[in-house]
Specification:
215 residues, seven-stranded mixed beta sheet, 37% helix, globular
C-alpha cells in the first residue's frame, strides 16, 4: 500500500488559515500584536524544551522559522555569544514586535529578522548549523517543499527540530503522536537522516518534536 501524500490535509494537527487560526498562522493588526505577546508569555516551557534538544553551541549559526514575538530568538541569542541568530516570519506585525524585543542584538548584528516565506528562505545554501520551528509546520501547505528548503540552508551535519503541540479542537494524545509520525515521515521525505521523535508531556496535550540531520 502506498503512503498517503504528505500535505497540509494529511497533518493530524493541521490548522487551516481561517478564523482565529489565521491570526496564529499570520498575525495582523492589533489582534495579531496581542496574540504575539500572549504566545511569548504562555509558551516558555515548550520553547525551552525544544531549544534544549538542539544542543546549541556558542558559535552556532541558528535559524528560526516563524519566530512570532521573538522570545525564542532572544533565548537562543543568549546561547551563542560567538554565533549568529536569524529568523523569518510571514507577519510584518511579528517582525516589528520581535525586532523591538531583540533590538540590542540586532544593532550588534548578532540577530537578523526578515519577513519571508519558509519556502523561499533568503539565505545561501549551507548557512546554518541549527534550524528550528515551533507550532508552525501545521500551517504549511506543502511541508516537504518547505523542509527541502530548510535542508538546503543547513550545513552538512546540521540539525533540524520541528515541534508541534496540537491546538485543534478536541486534540488528544493520539493526535499528538500521529502528528509526530507525520513530521518524521516529512523529514525523511525531504532528505534528512537519523530522524527521531521526542515527546514532552504537557497540558492540554503533549508536544512532539521531530529531529533530523543533514548528511
Amino acid at each position: 500500500m502506498s503512503k498517503a501524500p504528505i500535505s497540509l490535509e494529511s497533518c493530524p494537527a493541521a490548522c487551516k488559515p481561517t478564523g482565529i487560526f489565521q491570526q496564529f498562522g499570520k498575525p495582523t493588526g492589533w489582534l495579531g500584536w496581542c496574540i504575539g505577546q500572549l504566545m511569548a508569555i504562555k509558551n516558555r516551557q515548550r520553547s525551552e524544551w525544544v531549544i534544549g534538544l538542539l544542543n546549541v553551541q556558542p558559535s552556532d549559526r541558528v535559524l528560526e522559522i516563524g519566530f512570532g514575538s521573538g522570545a525564542d530568538i532572544y533565548r537562543v541569542t543568549r546561547l551563542v555569544p560567538q554565533g549568529f541568530v536569524a529568523g523569518i516570519d510571514r507577519s510584518e506585525v511579528m517582525v516589528q514586535q520581535a525586532s523591538q524585543r531583540n533590538a540590542i542584538a540586532i544593532k550588534a548584528k548578532r540577530v537578523e529578522l526578515q519577513c519571508a516565506d519558509a519556502s523561499k528562505i533568503p539565505y545561501p545554501s549551507e548557512t546554518f548549523d541549527k534550524v528550528f520551528c515551533i507550532n508552525v509546520a501545521h500551517f504549511w501547505t506543502n511541508p516537504v517543499e518547505v523542509l527541502t528548503e530548510l535542508h538546503r540552508v543547513l550545513k552538512p551535519g546540521g540539525l533540524i527540530a520541528i515541534a508541534i503541540q496540537p491546538r485543534i479542537p478536541n486534540a488528544t494524545e493520539a493526535t499528538a503522536q500521529a502528528t509526530g509520525e507525520f513530521l518524521v515521515n516529512a523529514l525523511i521525505s525531504a532528505g534528512f537522516e537519523q530522524v527521531r521523535l521526542e515527546t514532552k508531556s504537557m497540558q492540554p496535550v503533549s508536544v512532539v518534536c521531530a529531529l533530523g540531520i543533514k548528511n
